[in-house]
């Protein structure tokens, strides 16, 4: 591990790039095999090859159904929004294809001994971060950490002005606003820079706002003009739309330099040159720009600062080249935005600096780190509780947003009923006090509480949030032996086995065929999953069909359940798989019941959860879904944590599980039968178009 | 930031330009333009009252060619650019000044204001064109500290990478290096000796109208023919489609350098195709171009009095040298793996920045870390009349590839009896026939004493300085007649014009630049 080279990867919505830190401690970009610094984040699934980059982009018009673009926007979703040759692929798999190409290019120039840091928008939530880390794993990268893009940009700025070396740095400290408008995401972050120290003050953003939206406005405008002239809408065919988007992106770039341009539209044999002026373009997109301005103002308010306290505004992301952005910021702040860093390269360079910093901290490559980085969390993290006064569910925030990391907070809750035997801790991410407006990011259950605990018995929940944005949760019931600890157990996301499986595939040089084969394999294996008992057997398909889209990979591949359980215990990551614990326990409902020890109880929790997850967009058999949902939260989770007032939190409760568990199992069996039937029908009728279960 | 402005070097190319600076560690670093690119296409678009340089001008070339000035470097030294734009005749150095001004504005936004730069020119650039380049820098608001040759700059960048410029570099054994520079629009070969920290050019030659551009053209033809076979339509017929195809082919050319085949997407009149081109097809279609460079390379080596075995290294410069065919050819010729350790597109700018650093250090009284010795790339002579044939002949005073600075003398004789004046026409070129050479200036000696016999000796001295400027002295022995003149070229813009353009282009006040 001694000689790892630190690499930073900016995995962007439209373009990705890599940088490294050389032996003198300075960053340099790593060109790709085409000789470019930027690699378009576009993936073309050819039969025997997966092509990434500009060649893939060139194929977009010809094969729109085989090309994936802007996948970053779908990170955290179960599948990429557009089917690729009729198959829905998980976004992290597509991102992994991009990372694999970057990895190969880095390997070509720097050799195999590298360790990477991948960047994400500051506003990415836990789920999206994990998905990004998984993509890195699948691509076979040694991922040191995930870092926020604005932090990386600030590091790059710090490098440019000498803040990273305490000796060479200017004496004064400064507050910098990083305005990062990329292809698909928008972020704004306030940072405090002092020699050798970079601290995030606050961050805000919008994961669904970026240059792409500007493009689409232009696309709509041009398409309407064309329609008015020729009565045809070029957006209606895939190649027509693709061609139009390309022409509009080009026009957008031109309008940053020129006052007007013409967009050529060729559709159904008709040709039109539609003139767009910069003024018109700015008018079409004024509201998008205003959204970013609003976020900037809000951020300052959150940080309790005003523009006069901001010393510099850094522009990051290619979209900041639009003159309207600089002009708006100048109007708001009264100062000219800074152009010291290259908006395309700053993030990758900063990430490389961060990688060097982490390696140095581990006693790796270079000397000791000469600077410190302090991050904040972008979203509040809390627990679902019940307000004792209103008896409404409420989000009790343990770690408010913009708390410097690492952070550790403990909150006291109380049990809801007398003789409560179990407690469900539902972890939420979001600002709202209504749990339904927040993202449930995981849950855990404390079981087997001693009998006879009075109502209002204290439960202590501790959140520990690491610098890399990963959460671990600990719950203790004082006076009992009950305690659970987990690193965030996600509702959705990949199992480590799933990731490993993909990693294995990616290590070859797969084409779409290989992906397809893997999917087929999983389909065939799914229903035929051998089980030890009647109770068990149906469970796998539940996971496979309606439930967690990640799960089938593990069991389907025949990973020994024991291994899985062990993995769950040792790592307790993402191990959502519903099946494993069951065989481990003996395969009867009893096994589902009181499993002692946190290791077992962790995956346990997910059993309750897995049917809930039909967050899956899969159009799984309609008749199957009703039975699938009932066992979901309503019965199981209504007795959740009840939160009282902040000081004397009320409590969460789950309850006499056994009875309810039986009910659930009943539901599950029903659901499974339905699913299996539906699945079979579908599978027999049109196996090739059946959407994939993950 | 109250930092000293950094040392900046500019590679002002025919098809694209690059700016580099020295960072605080003294390493050269390429600066990106406002579009985020390291290479700025050297084109100027006159768009109503806006002047746009770079990528957008390149795009506009396809559709509004009449408003775009391209390849102005090829016209530098002429009085006006080869085509009128919007009815206006621009001097080529003014167009170059617009390009330089964009480079200055974009990089200033990143590194703060600066004025002092070094600009590179091809080795074969003559006096006139060097001066014009310097004028372009002035009009763009720069103070041009020096003009250096591109191959020299590339060698300096190479020497830096290899550690020749470090204190230990002194002990390095001398190396003979052949710099093969195939850029976008021009081709240059220079044989150099790197001795410790001294860079000496031994011979130089080139081809002004050969570059990656020509390779692109062949690829465009291949792709268009492929498309025509399928759809019976030729995308080259439509200016916009041809422009797009050109850009695709340029990309494809780079892909073919790393892959054995590529697909060129063509989308024309609603028809689409993905034309497959293999590297082999491409190499076959461009074999003759490659042969031209081989011919020039061998010639230069002979001119330096060397053979391939004597060479220590072949250094590749210019984006087009990424093509494997170039490397294979040179490998076969020289028996050595060509050295691609310098960044092909950026080495020249890096070397210029290193040279700028040297000059800045010198102006601050610090010791120089390396020395550059140039040769003149073209023979300089005087037009004489052959007594036998009565033809105008080129009497060479300074042969090409003479190390600079140099002073040379050649004796001519008066033509007839009682000749009262002598016309000295200075020409540049290799041909013995004066009419095939470039006339770069003339002066006359008047008021000779009467009664001078025919064939009286006339001594012509040329003093050629390192910066490529020429001083001429004419002496007629036994008389008191002697003139001395520094050549200012006939096409040069007068100072007032330069000042006017400077104000217009970059808004800066005139200086005492001469």
Overall description:
With 694 residues, chain A is an alpha+beta fold. Among the domains of chain A are: 5-164 and 342-372, 2-Layer Sandwich (Nucleotidyltransferase, domain 5), CATH 3.30.420.40; 211-284, Actin, Chain A, domain 4 (Alpha-Beta Complex), CATH 3.90.640; 496-635 and 677-689, no CATH class. Helices cover 36% and strands 21% of the residues of chain A. Chain A contains 21 helices and 24 strands. Chain B is 31% helix and 29% strand. Chain B folds into three domains: 8-162 and 341-373 and 496-506, Nucleotidyltransferase, domain 5, CATH 3.30.420; 212-285, Alpha-Beta Complex (Actin, Chain A, domain 4), CATH 3.90.640; 380-480, Substrate Binding Domain Of DNAk, Chain A, domain 1, CATH 2.60.34. The model of chain B has no long low-confidence stretch (mean pLDDT 85). The A-B interface holds A 24, 26, 33-35, 37, 54-55, 58-59, 61-62, 161-162, 168, 170, 239, 243, 250, 253-254, 257-259, 262, 264, 266-269, 271, 318, 321, 339-340, 342-345 and B 1, 23-25, 27, 32, 34-36, 38, 47-48, 50, 52, 54-56, 59, 63, 109-111, 240, 248, 251, 254-255, 257-258, 262-265, 267, 269-270, 272-274, 322.
Notable traits:
heterodimer; A: 694 residues; alpha+beta; Nucleotidyltransferase, domain 5; Actin, Chain A, domain 4; B: 514 residues; Substrate Binding Domain Of DNAk, Chain A, domain 1; 3 domains; five-stranded mixed sheet; 11 helices; 24 strands
Can you summarize this structure?
The complex is a heterodimer of chains A (694) and B (514). Chain A is of the alpha+beta class.
What layout of secondary structure does this protein have?
The complex is a heterodimer of chains A (694) and B (514).
Chain A (H helix, E strand, L loop, with lengths): L4 E7 L3 E7 L5 E4 L8 E2 L1 E4 L4 E3 L1 H6 L7 E3 L21 H20 L3 E7 L5 H13 L4 E6 H13 L12 E8 L4 E9 L2 E10 L4 H20 L7 H20 L2 E8 L2 E8 H7 L1 H17 L9 E5 L6 H11 L12 H16 L10 E3 L6 E6 L6 E7 L7 E8 L8 E7 L9 E8 L11 E8 L5 E6 L6 E5 L8 H12 L4 H14 L13 H7 L7 H4 L4 H10 L10 H5 L3 H4 L5 H12 L15 H4 L4 H5 L19 H29 L9
Parallel strand pairs in A: 1-8, 8-9, 10-15, 12-16
Antiparallel strand pairs in A: 1-2, 2-3, 2-4, 5-6, 5-7, 10-11, 11-12, 13-14, 17-18, 17-20, 19-22, 20-21, 22-23, 23-24
Helix pairs in contact in A: 2-3, 3-11, 4-10, 5-6, 13-21, 15-18
Chain B lengths: L7 E4 L4 E7 L5 E4 L8 E2 L1 E5 L2 E4 L1 H9 L4 E3 L21 H20 L4 E6 L5 H13 L3 E7 H12 L13 E8 L4 E9 L2 E10 L4 H20 L7 H20 L2 E8 L2 E8 H7 L1 H17 L9 E5 L6 H11 L12 H17 L7 E3 L6 E6 L6 E7 L7 E8 L8 E7 L9 E8 L11 E8 L5 E6 L6 E5 L8 H12 L8
Parallel strand pairs in B: 1-8, 8-9, 10-15, 12-16
Antiparallel strand pairs in B: 1-2, 2-3, 2-4, 5-6, 5-7, 10-11, 11-12, 13-14, 17-18, 17-20, 19-22, 20-21, 22-23, 23-24
């Amino acid at each position: 591990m001694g000689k790892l080279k630190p690499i930073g990867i900016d995995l962007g919505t439209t373009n990705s790039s890599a940088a490294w830190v050389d032996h003198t401690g300075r960053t340099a970009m790593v060109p790709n095999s085409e000789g470019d610094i930027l690699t378009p984040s576009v993936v073309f699934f050819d039969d025997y090859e997966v092509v990434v980059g500009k060649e893939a982009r060139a194929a977009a018009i010809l094969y729109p159904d085989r090309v994936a673009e802007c996948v970053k926007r779908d990170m955290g979703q179960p599948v990429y929004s557009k089917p690729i040759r009729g198959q829905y692929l998980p976004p992290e798999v597509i991102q992994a294809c991009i990372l694999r190409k970057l990895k190969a290019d880095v390997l070509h120039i720097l050799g195999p001994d590298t360790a990477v840091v991948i960047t994400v928008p500051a506003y990415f939530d836990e789920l999206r971060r994990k998905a990004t880390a998984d993509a890195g794993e699948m691509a076979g990268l040694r991922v040191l950490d995930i870092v926020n893009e604005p932090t990386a940009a600030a590091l790059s700025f710090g490098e440019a002005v000498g803040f990273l070396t305490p000796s060479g740095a200017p004496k004064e400290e400064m507050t910098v606003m990083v305005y990062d408008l990329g292809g698909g995401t928008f972020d704004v972050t306030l940072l405090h820079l002092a020699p050798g120290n970079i601290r995030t003050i606050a961050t805000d953003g919008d994961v669904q706002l970026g240059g792409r939206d500007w493009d689409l406005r232009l696309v709509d405008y041009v398409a309407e003009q064309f329609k008015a002239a020729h009565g045809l809408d070029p957006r209606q065919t895939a190649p027509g739309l693709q061609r139009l988007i390309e022409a509009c992106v080009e026009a957008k770039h031109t309008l940053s330099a020129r006052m007007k341009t013409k967009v050529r539209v060729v559709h159904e044999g008709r040709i039109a040159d539609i003139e767009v002026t910069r003024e018109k373009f700015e008018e079409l997109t004024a509201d998008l720009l205003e959204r970013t301005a609003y976020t900037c103002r809000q951020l300052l308010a959150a940080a309790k600062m005003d523009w006069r306290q901001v010393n510099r505004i850094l522009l990051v992301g290619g979209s900041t080249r639009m003159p309207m952005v600089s002009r708006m910021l100048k109007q708001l702040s009264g100062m000219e935005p800074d152009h010291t860093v290259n908006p395309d390269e700053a993030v990758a360079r900063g990430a490389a600096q961060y990688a060097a910093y982490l390696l140095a901290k581990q006693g790796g490559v270079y000397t000791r780190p000469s600077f410190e980085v302090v991050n904040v969390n972008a979203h509040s993290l809390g627990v679902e509780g019940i307000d004792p006064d209103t008896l409404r569910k409420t989000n009790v925030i343990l770690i408010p947003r913009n708390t410097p990391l690492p952070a550790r907070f403990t909150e006291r809750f109380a049990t809801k009923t007398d003789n409560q035997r179990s407690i469900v801790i539902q972890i939420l991410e979001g600002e709202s006090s209504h749990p339904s407006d927040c993202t449930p990011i995981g849950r855990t259950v404390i079981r087997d509480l001693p009998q006879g605990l009075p109502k209002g018995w204290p439960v202590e929940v501790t959140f520990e949030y690491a610098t890399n944005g990963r959460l671990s949760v600990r719950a203790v019931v004082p006076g009992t032996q009950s305690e659970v600890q987990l690193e965030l157990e996600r509702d959705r996301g990949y199992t480590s086995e799933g990731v490993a499986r993909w990693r294995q595939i990616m290590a070859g040089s797969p084409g779409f065929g290989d992906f397809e084969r893997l999917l087929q394999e999983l389909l065939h294996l799914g229903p035929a999953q051998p089980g030890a008992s009647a109770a068990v057997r149906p469970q796998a398909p539940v996971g496979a069909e309606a439930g967690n889209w990640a799960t089938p990979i593990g069991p389907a591949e025949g990973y020994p359940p024991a291994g899985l359980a062990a993995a769950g215990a040792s790592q307790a990551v993402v191990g959502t798989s519903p099946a494993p614990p069951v065989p481990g326990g003996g395969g009867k409902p009893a096994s589902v019941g009181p499993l002692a020890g946190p290791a077992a109880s962790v995956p346990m929790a997910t059993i309750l959860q897995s049917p809930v997850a039909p967050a899956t967009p899969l159009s799984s058999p309609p008749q199957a879904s009703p039975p699938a949902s009932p066992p979901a939260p309503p019965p199981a989770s209504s007795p959740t944590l009840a939160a009282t007032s902040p000081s004397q939190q009320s409590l969460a409760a789950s309850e006499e599980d056994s009875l309810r568990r039986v009910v659930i199992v009943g539901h599950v069996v029903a659901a499974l039968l339905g699913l299996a039937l539906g699945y079979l029908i579908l599978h027999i009728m049109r196996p090739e178009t059946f959407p994939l279960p993950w | 930031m109250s930092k000293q402005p950094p040392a900046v070097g500019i590679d002002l190319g025919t098809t694209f330009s690059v700016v580099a600076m020295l960072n605080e560690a003294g390493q050269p670093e390429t600066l990106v333009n406002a579009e985020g690119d390291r290479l700025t296409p050297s084109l100027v678009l006159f768009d109503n009252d806006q002047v746009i340089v770079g990528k957008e001008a390149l795009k506009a070339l396809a559709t509004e060619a009449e408003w775009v000035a391209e390849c102005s470097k090829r016209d530098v030294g002429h009085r006006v650019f080869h085509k009128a734009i919007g009815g206006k005749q621009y001097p080529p150095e003014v167009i170059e000044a617009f390009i330089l001004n964009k480079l200055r504005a974009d990089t200033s936004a990143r590194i703060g204001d600066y004025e002092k730069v070094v600009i590179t020119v091809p080795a074969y650039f003559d006096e006139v064109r060097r001066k014009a380049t310097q004028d372009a820098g002035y009009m763009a608001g720069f103070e041009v500290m020096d003009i250096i040759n591109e191959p020299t700059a590339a060698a300096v960048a190479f020497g830096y990478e290899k550690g020749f410029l470090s204190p230990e570099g002194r002990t390095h054994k001398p190396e003979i290096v052949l710099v093969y520079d195939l850029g976008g629009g021009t081709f240059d070969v220079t044989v150099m000796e790197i001795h410790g920290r001294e860079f000496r050019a031994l011979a130089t030659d080139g081809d002004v109208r050969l570059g990656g551009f020509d390779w692109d053209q062949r690829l465009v033809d291949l792709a268009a023919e492929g498309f025509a076979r399928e759809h019976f339509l030729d995308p080259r017929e439509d200016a916009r489609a041809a422009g797009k195809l050109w850009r695709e082919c340029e990309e494809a050319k780079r892909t073919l350098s790393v892959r054995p085949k590529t697909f060129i997407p063509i989308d024309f009149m609603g028809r689409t195709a993905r034309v497959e081109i293999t590297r082999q097809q491409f190499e076959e279609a461009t074999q003759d171009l490659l042969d031209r460079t081989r011919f020039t390379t061998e010639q230069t080596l002979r001119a330096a009095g060397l053979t391939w075995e004597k060479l220590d290294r072949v250094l590749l410069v210019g984006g087009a040298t990424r093509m494997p065919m170039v490397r294979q050819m040179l490998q076969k010729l020289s028996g050595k793996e060509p050295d691609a350790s310098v960044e092909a597109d950026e080495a020249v700018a890096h070397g210029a920045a290193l040279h700028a650093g040297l000059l800045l250090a010198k102006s601050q009284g610090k010791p120089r870390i390396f020395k550059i010795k140039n040769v003149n790339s073209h023979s300089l002579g005087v037009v004489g009349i052959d007594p036998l044939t009565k033809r105008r002949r080129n009497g060479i005073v300074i042969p090409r590839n003479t190390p600079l600075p140099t002073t040379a003398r050649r004796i001519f004789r008066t033509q007839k009896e009682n000749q009262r004046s002598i016309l000295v026409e200075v020409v540049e070129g290799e041909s013995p026939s004066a009419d095939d050479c470039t006339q770069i200036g003339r002066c006359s000696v008047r008021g000779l004493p009467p009664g001078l016999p025919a064939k009286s000796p006339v001594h012509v001295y040329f003093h050629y300085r390192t910066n490529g400027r020429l001083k001429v002295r004419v002496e007629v022995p036994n008389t008191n007649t002697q003139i001395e003149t520094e050549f200012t070229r006939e096409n040069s813009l007068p100072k007032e014009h330069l000042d006017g353009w400077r104000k217009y282009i970059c808004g800066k006040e005139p200086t005492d630049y001469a």
